[in-house]
Predict the 3D structure of the following.
Amino acid sequence: MNDLALDIRHLSKRFPPNVTALTDASLTVRRGEVHCLLGANGAGKSTLLKIVAGAHRPDDGEMLIGGRNVELKNPQQAREAGIAMIYQELDLVGQMTVEENLMLGYTPHRFGIVSRARRSARVKEALARVGAGFSASARVETLSIANQQLAAIARALTCDARVVVMDEPSAALNETELKRVFQVIREITAAGVAVLYVSHRLNEIREIGDRVTVLRAGRTLETQALSEVDDRALIAAVVGEHRELLERAERKPPRDALALQVTRLQGAQGLDVRDLEVRQGEIVGLAGLNGAGRSSLLKGLFGASKVDAQVRLFGEPYSVRTARQAIRCGVGLVPESRKSQGLLLDAAIYRNATLVHTRRLTWFSHAQAKQRSEPVLKRLQTKFDNLEQPVRQLSGGNQQKVVMAKWVIDGTRLLLLDEPSRGLDVGAKADLYALARSLAEEGAAVLVASSELDELYVNCDRIWVMHEGRNVACFDPLHASRDQIEQTILMGTKA
Ligand SMILES: Nc1ncnc2c1ncn2[C@@H]1O[C@H](COP(=O)(O)OP(=O)(O)OP(=O)(O)O)[C@@H](O)[C@H]1O
Ligand SMILES: [Mg+2]
C-alpha cells in the first residue's frame, strides 16, 4: 500500500483576466502525518486546498490520492475520493440545523442506505468528539463562529476521510477549543488519516505539525521536517526577506493628554471596567482569557452593545447607543469576526475600504473613494488586482486588511482592534502594528485586544489584564515579565 495519502505535482491556477494564484505547487502528504502549509497572505494556500477539495480545477499539474491519479471535477467527487475540507470561510448552511449540515457530508454512494437513527448517532458522536457544547438540532446561524467551525470539523469527521484539509481552523477558535481540535487531529492521524493544515502561527504549527512546506507567491519551496528548521528560517521563507519581526519597535512616548477615560463601564455578563485610560499617542493592550470581557468592552465603547458607562473622549463626555454615533465621534472598531461584521463580500474593494465614508457622505464620489483607499491598502501591502474587484476574490488575510483600511482612512481618533492579527501572516502583522503606531503618533489612541500575549508585549505601551469582566491589573511591558502577565491572566490577580 502506498504510504502517500496525497501527492500534488506542479499544480498551477490562474484567475482570469490576470491573477496567477499558483504557478508551481508540489507536495506530498504521508498517511498519518500532519503536513503544515505556511505562506504570506495571498501566497495561494487556500487556492491549493480548494483544488484538493475539488472546488477549483487546476490549469495544469496532477494529483494522486492514495497512489491513484484523480481529476476532481467538483467537491462531491473529492469527498468520494476521501477528501474532507474545512474551509477558511465557513461553508455550512446557516438556515439548516447542525445535524442537517453534517448529514450533507454523507455521500449516499459511499454509505449505501443508512438508517436515519444510525446517521443521527454518528453525528452526535462526532459532535462529542470535537467537544461541541451545542445541540445537533441548533440552527447553524444561531451559533458563534467558533461553534460553527467546530461543527465543520465534526462534519469532516463524519465522512470517514482519508485526507482532512484544514484552512486556518484556529482563526476562529479559542485556546481550549483549539486544544480539543488538536486532540482530534492526533486521534485521526494515529488511525492513519493524513492532515494538511494551514496556519500563520508558528507555535501552533510546531505543536501539531510533522513537516512543513512554505508556499511563496504561488510556488512551493522545499518541504522540511519541523524538527529540523527554526522559526527565523521559516519567517524568512514566508516573507522572502529577513525582517526583524519579533523585537520591540522604537517608540515615541505617548503625550500627556488623555484620549479615552473610562471611569466606569458596566454591561451584561458581569462586565465592570473601572478607571481605564488611554493617552493620545498610546497603544494599550487588553489581555485575558476568552470570555474575560475584552470584546464586550470594545463593543460597548463602539455602541455595538448596551452598556451603562461614564466615559470621556478627548475631554468630552462620550455616550453612544449606536455604532453610527460612535463613528461620528471618530471611533472605529475592527471587529473580531470580519466576515459577519466587517465586510460586504460582493462589493468592490474600494467601497469596502471606504464604507464609513460612503455611508455618511453621500456625495463622496467613487473616484475619491478610490483615491483615498489606495494608499492605505498599499501601506498594509494588501494584495489585489484592482480596486473594482469584489472583496470575495481576495485571500482571507487581505480581506482583513480591507477592514483595517476602512477605519484608518476615516481619520479615526480612537481605534479599537479586536484580535486584529487573526489570519494575518507575520509580515502583515508587523505592517498592521506599524500603521497603528503611526496613527498613534498623529495623536490617536489605540486599544487592542489580542489573545497572543507576545504580540501585545512587543507592540503596546501598557497592557491591561481583564479577568471575568473586570480590568484587574495594568503592566508596563518594559518592566513586567511575560510570566508575570500570564500568571495574572490565569489567576485574575497580580502575583
Ligand atoms: N475567485 C478568485 N478570483 C480572483 N482572484 C482570486 C480568487 N480566489 C483567489 N484569488 C487570488 O489568488 C491569490 C491567492 O489567494 P489565496 O486565497 O489562495 O491566498 P492564501 O495563501 O490563502 O492567503 P491568506 O493567508 O490571506 O488566506 C490572491 O491574489 C487572491 O486574490
Ligand atoms: Mg487563505
Notes: The mean pLDDT is 86. The radius of gyration is 23 Å. Residues 4-239 form a domain with the Rossmann fold fold (CATH 3.40.50.300).
